[in-house]
From TrEMBL:
Transmembrane segments: none
Keyword tags: Pyridoxal phosphate
Source domain of life: Bacteria
Record protein name field: Aminotransferase class V domain-containing protein
Species annotation: Pseudohongiella acticola
Domain Aminotransferase class V, residue spans: 23-386
Family of this protein: Belongs to the class-V pyridoxal-phosphate-dependent aminotransferase family.
Cofactor(s) essential for the protein: pyridoxal 5'-phosphate
Amino acid sequence: MRSQAMNTDLLRAHTPACHDLIHFNNAGAALSPQPVSDALFEHLLLEQRVGGYEAGEASLSAQDNFYHAFGRLLGCNPREIAYMENATRAWTLLLQAIPLVHGDRIITGQSEYASNYMTLLHLAKTRNIRVEVIPNDSNGHICLQTLQQKLDEDVRLIALTHVPSQSGVIHPAAEVGKIARKHRIFYLLDACQSVGQIDLNVDDIGCDMLTGSGRKYLRGPRGTGFMYVRQSTQDYLEPPSADLQSASWTRKDSFKFRDDARRFENWEHYVAGKIALGVAADYACDLGMNIIEDRIRLLASLLREKLRQMPGVEVHEQGEKLSGIVTFSCDGKDASAVHQYLREHHINTSVVRHQVNQLDFSKRGLPDVNRASVHYYNAEQEIDAFCRVLSARL
């Protein structure tokens, strides 16, 4: 496989914490590589030495690199990229910018992220917008046949989470894109868990808008995110507020929004984080997203295989093409207790709560479950060690 070309020893050397722990919580927050941390700290030190405004002026080239790095990562024009404080903020801003009227329908999926779905519920309550959930098929993917059947002239938006935080399933984003284009419907893709681990191209996907987080598989800092807005879509979107970054005050009684995706940005933002996130995007591109994707899939498949061989462990993913997220349960063991036990043995994982996945978990009959999410810098030996520690708990 192409993943064999990856120099994991060098990548682990760029990730100092690998020597002290097993980090299988990359779907929560991945470990940043040294070049990303260096870029972050260097700008913070510059702010300390010369002042925040002055450091910002001195780093304009590094800030501008952010847009070019994400254009390269997603296969789009840098003018279609905006920096965001986090992915939820990006997703919410785009939702608020879509020209919705009473009676419009929004289609979403069974695996939708909790914050996204609660925002949709709020919109339904306050603006008389109807929200309809498309169930998953037997493999856990959004059912494309049902989606097709539910579309009519009232549907204004399809909002899909590409890779759910509670499952390793990869939803068929490109197939949904074809359906959205055919029916001329806005298409918003939440790529928080897919960007950085799956080779993405927005033209291949066919989405009008895409949002993502810096801290997850991109290995960027916390408190960073981004959005993509297709150039042909931008004129149809009205940002919910204006800012000195997003617009120009043209006359005493008027202003004009920018003609690129930065119309959604704020002038005041986390400059060090923006610079470091651009470095993280470059780092991924330089490694090769196709190689990264292969490596993560190889490790996740190995982990699932070993877990399935362990008595008393149930793996919850199914399907042929899965991501680096692996969810599992241990018979008779509380998920939080298993999580804490692993943490005591220097293994980072997370717990996926039923409460924040009610659409999906109620349908699947799942309680809280454990989640292990691998990245390309993880090693096969770490999977063996993880399974040995876990088996001692069973």
